[in-house]
Design goal:
- The complex is a heterodimer of chains A (about 750) and B (about 325).
- Chain A is of the alpha+beta class and about 750 residues long.
- Chain A has 3 domains: about 10-125 and about 175-285, Alpha-Beta Complex (Aldehyde Oxidoreductase, domain 3); about 400-445 and about 590-745, Aldehyde oxidase/xanthine dehydrogenase, molybdopterin binding domain (Aldehyde Oxidoreductase, domain 4, 2-Layer Sandwich); about 450-580, Aldehyde Oxidoreductase, domain 4, CATH 3.30.365.10.
- Chain A has 19 helices and 30 strands.
- In chain A, the strands form 7 sheets. A 7-stranded mixed sheet of chain A has the order 3-5-1-15-12-13-14, with helices on both faces. In chain A, strands 7, 10, 11, 16, 17, 18 and 30 form a 7-stranded mixed sheet that branches. Chain A has a 4-stranded mixed sheet with strand order 19-27-28-29, sandwiched between helices.
- In chain A, helix 9 (about 360-380) crosses helix 10, helix 9 packs parallel to helix 17 and helix 13 (about 515-540) crosses helix 14 (about 560-570).
- Chain A is globular.
- Chain B has 2 domains: about 50-210, Uridine Diphospho-n-acetylenolpyruvylglucosamine Reductase, domain 3; about 215-315, Enolase-like, domain 1, CATH 3.30.390.
- Chain B has helices at about 25-30, 45-50, 65-70, 75, 80-85, 90-95, 100-105, 110-115, 155-165, 260-270, 275-285, 295-315; strands spanning about 5, 15-20, 40, 50-55, 60, 165-170, 175-180, 205-210, 215-220, 230-240, 245-250, 260.
- In chain B, strand 10 and strand 11 (about 245-250) form a beta hairpin.
- Chain B is globular.
- Classes of the chains: A alpha+beta (about 750), B alpha+beta (about 325).
- The interface of A and B includes residues 606, 663 and 728 of A.
- Bound molecules: flavin-adenine dinucleotide and iron/sulfur cluster (SF4).
Chain lengths: ~750, ~325
């Protein structure tokens, strides 16, 4: 069943279990969260009416919630020192101010409606960057990326450059909004530990947050020597987190507040509790992609070769440590002589921001590619040629050679499949009266690796059991890893068993940043290599032997049946660790791509239709082409949503997200989806024995928004530096006189 | 959602309401934005009150006809603007449930109205209107008051106003009256919670659409499906050769009620249609707009919607 998701059939038949579907011997009470309607003030809650209702078990607010300890920075989107329900201070709209616990969902709703929440409102909040000029502070680091960087004297080089371009890009905040709103079940255990059922992207990290907050243990978030030194042996933690499937996540299901609220509720209620999130809750109890402004200036010679890149981002931060890592990637895409990065961050009165597909890079490449288009116009080059002229053999930021880079092939294949070189002129009128535009952009995303710790057992009856707590959010990781394990061990995929749901299993790298397959496969590989050594010893074969089709095969062709060897040795177990250097190595690693867009624009209404999106991607070895292609296409459509419509709006006086509903926070519908093609380039087979995986989905969201903005500019002459490129932004870029009258007069 | 009764017989009195397809009603009850104590299910009257009939100059639709059934009917396909407004509204799933009577009476999408944590004069009279001076990007630039600037979101009613359509209303005493759709919706004024000319217990039984005229409905929105109009325009033209003898124009997505743009109609009357007159009519239609910094672009969008609708109605006339 190559290419079919292992859990796919269950999902289609409605048998797949999400947290909300779990049934327990003792049915949990139901908890709902009351949140603040405004961003600042002090909260007072009158609970008497809610408590008087027959179905209400308890109401928890800052006066009776257990005191929590802070959780140190691990994922950066955890609340840190701002633990929920610890004081009457309101710091953002949507902040949890109380939890009601009741016998049923209906009773909980009634209790929630009966709570009287009063906020004594003080000063006005700042929730958008334009209201927070006085809060901007220069930073050395912006989240996981650099905040300040310098190569040569970029300002002088910019001043001397023959050609220069300036882009002032602005991107509105928006939310990940996967399908599942989510629920968290918590139960305190007799030994003082806590069992939590929740959809998460990184089991041990979130177990660590819970452990720290409730004073249980923080070591689950660690791995390797440090973790073991602190924890003794793994599996002793009193935080028992169970993760079923998650109905999408896109970065949102990391260190979210419900993971703390449910145990709080269970503690006070004295029994198991299920905390249910409404869709509106998810907008403030979970993270979002933050607002970013970028001033980008580039200087080039008359051939369009980059001499200087000066990037000055202003980034919004909410009530978490997370900062969108804008500065990380733009210096790694094109050859250039000098650069300067100066980042400022403003802490706003918003919920914590967090990870979302293509963190930092999606915004950053939008600005850079707009500048490249401007340079191309100025030096009279085709957009593709200016990118070719700035192609860099080495990583331009640190001079390292790339482990693999097939960007040139991506340009070539993408352009050929799209017909880029023979495209009609931008602005030409289509038979239906609309105007055509064509645009393209490059894509890049850094290859990272995170620590993982797998235990692999080969059993006498021919199964391979892997203990590794990986998350399956629909991205196909489980299927991909099962394929890798099957290949490494020479058994068929249906004999591979993943034990992945509970934190008692091996520490896995989180499903973030398209790093899951690479990081976790590396840990499994190390374990399998140890097993091979043991098998080889038992069979008198060299250590360099491989497992293939049920045999251990030596380089000289000599072989022995694995089942025979295992019947001699008994079940074999080995542990494997990887990623302790977080992927740092002598060579630089990144995925690359090129994406091409055809658009039609109505000259009167400025309605746009993306007609075609064609991408070509070097994402290393492609294990399951069907799943990988689905990931690419999905991410390209997500990029289109980011380009055209995704934004969560804010009320600047009260400070809340206004369109916090799935019907109002727009994402593309099927009717918006163009003809989408994704092609693989580079070494899709991988070198024998090497893993050679790179990120897939994160890369494919990058480049789409600039390609779409370029196509719009090509059609209309209007340059848009604001995302989303909605009607307001389009109207600001194109006047009637410039475009509509001229074209519509035809 | 708070507890409520549901019944099939009888007529709503204070605090109670009709329910047809429920796509507006149940949505708002789930949010807590409306909480009728009792619902009177129109399901039992569905057979009697749905269906489409035609005379030489009018198409009559039962008020319980679903949007999907109406859009499929050959007679409706002949009324281009009506057909467009129906198929571009909501989603196919919703259109299967939603009735035309319910559609006319759908409530605003104002985010403050839908979020029960926020004040709102329409939901809780006297509590204030945070949209004014707040996040008003999708609020009305026409027909607002100091108490409420909520946009009427629907499409079909806008076309009905442009066509000069009427509805039949049956009162709780059984008496029937006919009013133009244009008189159904009330501007918010000092009483934003009073939205229509209907009394409690009044039932819309039928909608009467005049035939004829070159027509078009243009809906500008932020995505290709399943989105309300950012600005829309319905135009019905009667032409003598290339000259407009009469025009009716209505705006959607921009005003507190489906908005008849009479000034724009005067601009067109007696003129030949070209891009210039189309835009001039658009400008006339929006001349009384009261935009704010955050929704000013929708004035320009409204002008463009009208211009496009006029040009395509002319196109549809040949
Ligand atoms: C996500 C979403 C997107 C949408 N997008 C659009 C869109 O783009 N364009 C658009 O035009 N609409 C849109 N709609 C609105 C939708 O068309 C309406 O909800 C629907 O038409 C209402 O019809 P219903 O039969 O479900 O009404 P109900 O929800 O049953 O009733 C609505 C109201 O009308 C009253 N009522 C119903 N029938 C009668 C009657 N015969 N006489 C008197 N009172 C009556 C009810 O008491 C209630 O107050 C959307 C709705 C949703 C949920
Ligand atoms: S505009 Fe009207 S519906 Fe919206 S908040 Fe104000 S009063 Fe309420």
């Amino acid at each position: 069943m190559q290419g079919h998701r292992i859990e796919g059939a269950d999902k289609v038949r409605g048998l797949a279990k999400y947290t909300d579907d779990l049934r327990f011997a003792t049915p949990p009470l139901i908890a709902l969260t009351a949140t603040s309607p405004v961003a600042r003030g002090r909260v007072q809650i009158d609970t008497s009416a809610a408590l008087a209702l027959p179905g209400t078990r308890c109401v928890i607010d800052h006066t009776n919630a257990p005191r929590l300890k802070r959780a140190i920075l691990i994922s950066m989107c955890e609340p840190g020192t701002r633990m929920p329900l610890q004081s009457d201070q309101v710091e953002y709209a949507g902040q949890p101010v109380a939890i009601v616990v009741a016998d049923s969902l209906h009773a909980a709703r009634d209790a929630l409606a009966a709570l009287i929440v009063t906020i004594e409102n003080h000063d006005a909040p700042a929730v958008v960057l334009s209201d927070a000029e006085n809060r901007l502070k220069s930073v050395r680091r912006a989240g996981i990326g650099p905040g300040a960087m310098k190569k040569g004297d970029a300002d002088a080089a910019l001043a001397d450059a023959s050609v220069s371009a300036e882009v002032n890009a602005h991107a509105a905040p928006h939310h990940q909004n996967p399908m599942e709103p989510g629920a968290v079940v918590a139960r305190w255990d007799p030994d003082g530990g806590v069992t939590v059922h929740a959809a998460v992207q990184w089991h041990h990290l979130d177990a660590s947050m819970i452990g720290q907050a409730f004073g249980l243990s923080w070591a689950d978030g660690m791995t390797g020597l440090l973790g073991r030194a602190v924890l003794g042996t793994s599996g002793k933690s009193k935080v028992r987190l169970h993760n079923q499937l998650s109905g999408g996540a896109f970065g949102r299901n990391i260190s979210y507040l419900a993971l703390l609220l449910a145990p709080i509720a269970a503690k006070v209620a004295g029994g198991p509790v299920k905390l249910v999130q409404s869709r509106r809750d998810t907008f403030s109890l979970m993270s979002h992609r933050s607002e970013v402004k970028q001033r980008l200036r580039v200087g080039a010679d008359t051939d369009g070769k980059l001499k200087a890149i000066v990037l000055e981002p202003d980034i919004a931060r909410g009530n978490a440590a997370f900062v969108e890592p804008i500065g990380e990637m733009p210096m790694q895409l094109y050859a250039h002589d000098t650069h300067r990065l100066t980042t400022r961050v403003a802490k706003l009165d918003l919920p914590g921001a967090g990870w979302m597909r293509g963190p930092g890079v999606a915004h950053a490449i939008f600005a850079l590619e707009q500048a490249m288009d401007d340079l191309a116009r100025q030096v009279g080059k085709d957009p593709l040629d200016i990118r070719l002229a700035n192609y860099s053999e080495k990583n331009p930021a640190n001079g390292k050679s790339w482990e693999a880079k097939a960007l040139l092939e991506a340009y070539e294949v993408g352009a050929a499949k799209f017909g880029w070189r023979d495209r009609p002129k931008g602005g030409s009128v289509r038979p239906d009266g609309r105007v055509s535009g064509f645009g393209m952009a490059s894509a890049i995303d850094l290859g990272r690796q995170f620590p993982a710790h797998a235990t692999v057992t080969m059993t006498k009856d021919g199964r391979v059991v892997v203990s590794l707590a990986v998350s399956e959010m629909g991205q196909g990781l489980l299927t991909g890893l099962t394929g890798v394990v099957a290949e490494m061990t020479g058994v068929s995929p249906d004999r591979v068993e993943f034990k992945r749901e509970a934190t008692k299993e091996g520490y896995a790298a989180g499903s973030i940043g398209s790093t899951g397959t690479y990081s976790n496969a590396a840990a499994v590989k190390t374990a399998v290599e140890k097993i091979i050594k043991k098998l080889a010893k038992a069979g008198g074969l060299p250590k360099s032997s491989k497992l293939q089709d049920g045999m251990l095969v030596a380089p000289n062709g000599e072989s022995a049946a694995i089942s025979d060897l295992l019947s001699r040795t008994g079940d074999l177990t080995a542990k494997g660790r990887a990623g302790l250097t977080f992927g740092a190595s002598k060579q630089a690693k990144a995925s690359f791509g090129a994406v091409f867009c055809e658009m039609a624009v109505d000259p009167i209404t400025l309605d746009v239709e993306v007609i075609r999106l064609v991408g070509a991607y070097d994402c290393g070895r492609v294990l399951q082409p069907k799943i990988a292609r689905a990931q690419l296409i999905g991410a390209m459509i997500m990029g289109m949503g980011q380009a055209l419509m995704e934004e969560t709006r804010l009320d600047r006086k009260r400070g809340h997200w206004t369109n916090a509903e799935i019907g109002e926070a727009l994402v593309p519908t099927q009717a918006d989806c163009p003809h989408v093609e994704a092609h693989f380039v580079g070494d899709t087979q991988g070198k024998p024995g090497a893993l050679d995986f790179k990120g897939i989905a994160e890369t494919a969201i990058v480049g789409v928004s600039p390609a779409i903005a370029s196509a719009f500019a090509d059609a209309t002459g209007g340059v848009v530096h604001h995302l989303p490129l909605n009607h307001a932004a389009r109207l600001a870029a194109v006047s009637r006189a410039q475009f509509s009258f001229k074209e519509a007069a035809e | 959602m708070s507890a409520f009764d549901i019944t099939e017989g009888g007529t709503p009195v204070d605090g109670a309401a009709w329910i047809a397809g429920g796509t507006t009603m149940v949505d708002l009850m789930k949010l807590g934005a409306t909480a009728p104590s009792r619902l009177f299910d129109l399901g039992a009257q569905r057979d009697a009150l749905s269906g489409i009939s035609e005379t030489s100059d009018t198409i009559t639709l039962g008020a319980l006809t679903t949007m999907a059934d109406a859009a499929k009917h050959p007679a409706i396909r002949g009324l281009t603007a009506v057909h467009t407004a129906l198929v571009q509204a909501a989603s196919p799933q919703i259109r299967e449930m939603a009735t035309l009577g319910g559609n006319l009476l759908q409530r605003t999408r104002c985010s403050y109205f839908r979020d029960t944590r926020q004040p709102c004069n329409k939901r809780v009279p006297g509590s204030g209107c945070p949209a004014i001076g707040g996040e008003d990007g999708h609020h009305a630039v026409l027909g607002g008051s100091a108490q409420c600037i909520a946009t009427y979101p629907g499409d079909f009613a806008v076309v009905c106003v442009a066509l000069g359509a009427e509805i039949t209303i049956r009162a709780s005493d059984g008496s029937e009256r006919k009013i133009p759709v244009q008189d159904l919706h009330r501007r918010p004024g000092a009483t934003p919670h009073t939205e229509t000319a209907l009394q409690t217990g009044d039932l819309i039984t039928a909608i009467h659409l005049p035939k004829g005229g070159a027509q078009s409905y243009i809906k500008i929105r932020d995505r290709a499906s399943y989105a309300f109009a950012t600005a829309s325009a319905a135009v019905v033209l009667h032409m003598d050769g290339a000259m407009v003898t009469s025009a009716r124009i209505a705006l959607g997505g921009l005003a507190t009620v489906p908005w008849r743009a009479a000034t724009a109609e005067h601009v067109l009357k007696g003129s030949m249609i070209d891009q210039k007159t189309a835009f001039a009519a658009g400008e006339a239609a929006l001349q009384d707009a009261h935009p704010t910094l955050t929704n000013a672009h929708r004035v320009e969008l409204g002008i463009r919607a009208v211009a496009k609708a006029i040009l395509s109605a002319r196109g549809n006339s040949v």
